[in-house]
Amino acid sequence: MFIDRARIHVVSGKGGNGMSSWRREKFVPKGGPSGGDGGRGGDVILIVDANTNTLIDFRYKRKFVANNGVNGQTKNMHGQHAEHTYIKVPPGTLVKDADTGEVVADLTKVGQQAVIVKGGRGGRGNARFVNSVNRAPTFAENGAPGAERFLQLELKLLADVGLVGYPSVGKSSIISVVSAAKPEVAAYHFTTLTPVLGVVSLDEGHSFVLADIPGLIEGANEGIGLGHDFLRHIERTKVILHVLDVSGLEGRDPIEDYNKINNELKLYNEKLATRPQLIVANKMDLAEAQENYPRVAEYMKKLGYELYPVSAATGEGLPELMQQTAKLLLEHVEVPEEAEGTVVYEAKQEDDFTIGRDTDGAFLIRGRGIERLVAMTNFDNDEGVRRFQQLFKRIGIESALKEKGVQEGNTVRIGEMEFEFRT
């Protein structure tokens, strides 16, 4: 089954907790603190796999959780870092933040990787807090929490050439003749419900990947018919083969079909209108096609296009068409472009925070640095609490709360922690 869209939930690993311990060895007086650091939590990384060609695996597993780091040990032994969690995706996968729609990564090359969420750092053991003032610290840090996010994965086929046109114009028949692909072929609309890829091998040893894109209709750019589900698969192609049924047996005029499909491509993405096209006149084995061909050829000539007569039924004209396609591919110059909507993330200062009011009137403090400090503080240790209070003042949160009108005994919330304000 071909699946080209998926929504997944990824969670990175929590850092291991630091250890608070003391050296107790014979003949070592005043051994001092010896707590080791916790290990780093695992990252969640997307990696492009050559053996994966759809997103079907994500129908059965949608949540990926990395391992946590190992806690620190006594005798200054640090906890082990967690292994990263790798998620295999096919080439051509566009990764978006499911909540904002922002592009996170555009994965096109085999082996390409993207770190989606980073694991939390390990907490420091009490041996790391020894200084000239405090020679025997009793506290250690908890590991930093991991991160989580929801992702929307969209697959855009990485084909060199795309076959486009109205349903039943013969696209599937053409790809079945020129390649080893075996799409379903029948005399009704939308026989092809999923894109089909085929490799075209030429006599000179050249080859290219040809994609049979399901039939488009008027209004496809607005999602009508198969619409957006498959229009995006044309975006990465270098050359478009625009197939027309010049016989007109479906009751449509091939010239009108040509203009309508090109308009749909343009409305969906302006860049598709400038993509090199070869116009293919199919079903030339029929008498009606022979009659219509001169009129269609004259119209295309005025637009600057040559019309290529072929018959998928007999194979006539297809070798010449494939040769011309290969020639056009060799002349193609790839223009590097940034993926649309790509966001450049700016690192925020760790001490940035905001103060608001919750629905019950409590003061609500948000900020990456302060929330991480709360998560990494062991509030069961008196010395750890005193350190938190010092940092709370140093960051400027206490003075900011007073400016906001906090009173003695008011409730203050930071992350999952809640306390009463005391001066």
Automatic annotation (TrEMBL):
Residues 345-423 form the OCT domain. It is an enzyme of class 3 (hydrolase). InterPro entries: G_OBG (IPR031167), GTP-bd (IPR006073), GTP-bd_Obg/CgtA (IPR014100), GTP-bd_prot_GTP1/OBG_C_sf (IPR036346), GTP1-OBG_CS (IPR006074), GTP1_OBG_dom (IPR006169), GTP1_OBG_dom_sf (IPR036726), OBG_GTPase (IPR045086). It is found in: Cytoplasm. Residues 159-330 form the OBG-type G domain. Belongs to the TRAFAC class OBG-HflX-like GTPase superfamily. OBG GTPase family. This is GTPase Obg.
